[in-house]
Structure formats: structure tokens, C-alpha cells
């Protein structure tokens, strides 16, 4: 089983245990909303573009609500568990390439929204995968950063992104934590930041990610 499917299974177990009304780090979303989002991505390609493009978001939100009404929470969690579906099943390697980070991030969105949580120790190969994704995507993830961001991976490795002439901020942590930081979970990533106080504060509030 690849890491995308491992994270999918673990998230499914957590969603089943917490029920539909638990909080997540996704603003305004409960676990019910998140389950619908994950199923929509794979089962309703007509509605998926609204995840990325604001002008299409209304259609996506409408479809997401209709899926909640049609399948219910348990049905959505089961559909999510049985994936990948759609293109993620048809295109070789796409599930691993895209869903490893997707399901890790959303798994942590649920874990870290609960009252008690601790970071997980990730397998070495998964840390390497996330570090490769951080390095490859830093230009996109950090394009709205108000700082020149120096991402320093614990154990070795540096990636730099953000405006070239902006004041610097160094962000240090494991690859999984840096990935969460770069995907807009700054307040919940276990990282250390160093730089001018005002610049660090601006970076913490910036809309990072895709």
C-alpha cells in the first residue's frame, strides 16, 4: 500500500471515530464538510474546478451540499475510503503524486483541530517525498509571502522562495511540517521562525499554498 492509501485509510478511521460535527482546520468546515470535499474531488470532476477557482466556487459548494444530503456522513466516509476513484484510479501514478500530500494535509487538518494532538513521526521515505514537493512547489506555495522565506529542513536541506527583495524569515522544521506551513497551516505547523517580528507576523497571516 502506498502512502496516499495509508493516509486515506487513517483519515477514514479518524472521521468514523469523531463523527460529522468535529472541527477541522479548514475554515468553516466540519468533518462532514471535509468528507464531502474529498469525495467531490474524485467523483464529481465537473465540480472540482471550483476548489481552485473562486468564480466557480458557488457550483462546487452547491454540489458538495447535495452530496452531503444524498450520501450522509457515513456514506461519504465509506466512499472516500474505497478510493482512489476517477482519474486518480485511471492514470497510473496520479494517486501517489497528488493524493499523498492531499490526504496527509487533510488528515492533519482533522487531527490538529482537536483539543489534544501531537505531531506524528513520519516514515523516512514519506519525509523525502514531502521535501521534494516543498522544493518543487515553493515558487507557487510562497508566491504571496511578504518575506523572502528560507525553508530549512531539520536534518539538512534548504529551499528559498518568496519575493527576492523582501526581508528574510527562516522557517525550520521537518519536511511534513514545512509542507503544512507552505499550504497555509502556519499556525498549526510545528516549526521555528526567525526574522524581524513584523515580517514574521505578516508571514504567519499570509495566504500561502495553491
TrEMBL record:
Stored InterPro entries: CHP03085 (IPR017519), DinB/YfiT-like (IPR034660), Maleyloyr_isom (IPR017517)
SUPFAM superfamilies per record: DinB/YfiT-like putative metalloenzymes
Superkingdom of origin: Bacteria
NCBIfam families in the cross-refs: maleylpyruvate isomerase family mycothiol-dependent enzyme (TIGR03083), TIGR03085 family metal-binding protein (TIGR03085)
Protein name: Uncharacterized protein (TIGR03085 family)
Organism: Streptosporangium becharense
